[in-house]
Amino acid sequence: MSKKIIQTNAAPAAVGPYSQAVEAPAGRTVYLSGQIGLEPETGELVAENFEAQVRQAFANMQAVIEAAGGTLENIVKLTLFLTDLERFAAANAIMSELIPQPYPARSTVGVVSLPKGAQFEVEAIIVL
Predict the structure, then answer these.
(1) Which family does this protein fall into (predicted)?
(2) How far is residue 128 from each of residues 16, 91, 122, measured CA to CA in Å?
(3) pLDDT tens-digit profile of 43-52?
(4) Cα 125 from chain centroid?
């Protein structure tokens, strides 16, 4: 899949590993539900550690994308949910390590709480 990245100087530049907008080619669109850092085998959080939860949430998301027949390159939009926006830089660093360029569009939202006491959740839209 080839994504067209849309960028303009008339809006603020991306402040991390994401694009201002992404035009996706015609194809099958898949909307993924949010994933938190649960271990698939136990249904429990992988750890209390924020970074471990972020990595597990992205691994869970990748498993769902692969089950749909895609790869991380098929992501056109991500939404990140953090219970502590002070950890935004850590989430950015992990995302830039795991998600291939060109980066998808992304929103980040600070929330009061997440299921099972998670500190991080990620949801995605992919185009196959």
Answers:
(1) Belongs to the RutC family.
(2) 25, 26, 19
(3) 999 999 999 9
(4) 9
